[in-house]
User: Which sequence fits this backbone?
């Protein structure tokens, strides 16, 4: 027994497993960026191969793709965060000034004067409690933004890791499949190949059916909001595209809020136009999505919805992308296993029937 345990502990497989676990813990802070880089590289690889036929050095084609595609996306993400912080700060400052103004003009005292004497002390304590609660909320929000600013250096490191992981996975990612295949028993190679095909189809389905659809809806939304004269039209377009990604929801929260805002400010014509425009965006999904992903695997909306909800909780903002992709890949692996199991069952039944027929013929 001791000899067997010693053989196991001294085997290459056990040593590699321990080293992999240690490496996983080491990479944990940037693991989401590595996963994200591998997924983006998988999508960019076919484009890189086409460009490599016209470029002498393969690395140049990858650098070109990163400059044209990846860096603008990172800048767009940074712009979104910047505008969101700016709008939140403006809203908080306005709200804080509003409540301070209410306190200075003694609105609470005016209301208290209309109450019975025995209720005035209770009303004063309630007003004080509300004011304290508002101040606590404001301090909490400001504290969140201060923490966000503190994490900017780490965010820069993550962006650095993302860009370089995209580069190296795009250039050398095909080697990963070979390395993984060496650890898989030969009788499982067919299952591994089928799993790789299923994952590829699922990734294409998510990309074309959801991300690309969201991108198109977001671009159309940004152009429409700009024509209608809204401030931060690009930011509103980005929010529209993000809402479009989430199953069941779609872009309606954005144009509904804009319609309510215009209606409350007396701009009835624009309120009606943005509502009609929003309905058009929602209906366009019925035509854009099937046209882009009709030939790929149709993933159940619940899987994507769970990915969008749970992803940000686990991976932060990148979870909006990683969550659906990871659950989609898991779904693909299960599909591949199910197909392989059915295939083996059919093979077994075929062999049994062949044996019976040979026995009967004899």
Assistant:
């Amino acid at each position: 027994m001791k000899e067997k345990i010693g053989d196991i502990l001294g085997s290459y497989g056990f040593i590699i497993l321990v080293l992999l676990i240690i490496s996983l813990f080491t990479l944990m802070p940037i693991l989401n960026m590595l996963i994200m880089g591998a997924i983006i590289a998988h999508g960019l690889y076919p484009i890189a191969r086409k460009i490599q036929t016209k470029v002498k050095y393969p690395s140049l084609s990858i650098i070109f793709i990163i400059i044209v595609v990846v860096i603008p996306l990172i800048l767009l993400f940074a712009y979104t965060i910047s505008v969101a912080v700016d709008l939140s700060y403006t809203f908080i400052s306005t709200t804080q000034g509003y409540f301070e103004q209410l306190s200075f003009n003694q609105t609470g005292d005016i209301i208290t004067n209309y109450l019975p004497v025995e209720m005035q002390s209770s009303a004063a304590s309630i007003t004080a409690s509300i004011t304290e609660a508002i101040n606590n909320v404001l301090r909490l929000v400001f504290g969140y933004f201060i923490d966000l600013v503190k994490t900017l250096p780490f965010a820069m490191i993550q962006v650095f890791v993302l860009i370089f992981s995209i580069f190296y996975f795009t250039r050398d990612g095909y080697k990963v499949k070979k390395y993984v295949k060496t650890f898989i028993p030969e009788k499982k190679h067919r299952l591994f190949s089928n799993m790789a095909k299923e994952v590829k189809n699922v990734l294409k389905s998510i990309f074309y059916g959801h991300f690309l659809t969201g991108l198109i809806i977001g671009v159309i939304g940004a152009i429409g909001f700009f024509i209608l004269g809204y401030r931060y039209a690009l930011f509103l377009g980005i929010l529209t595209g993000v809402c479009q990604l989430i199953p069941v929801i779609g872009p309606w929260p954005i144009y509904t809020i804009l319609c309510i805002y215009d209606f409350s400010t007396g701009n009835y014509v624009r309120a009606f136009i943005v509502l009609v425009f929003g309905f058009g965006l929602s209906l366009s999904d019925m035509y854009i999505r099937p046209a882009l992903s009709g030939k790929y695997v149709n993933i159940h909306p619940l899987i994507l919805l769970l990915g969008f909800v749970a992803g940000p909780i686990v991976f932060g903002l990148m979870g909006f992308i990683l969550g659906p992709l990871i659950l989609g890949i898991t779904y693909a692996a299960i599909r591949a296993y199910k197909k392989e199991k059915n295939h083996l069952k059919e093979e077994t039944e075929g062999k049994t029937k062949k044996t019976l027929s040979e026995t009967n013929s004899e």
Observations:
- The longest helix spans residues 58-104.
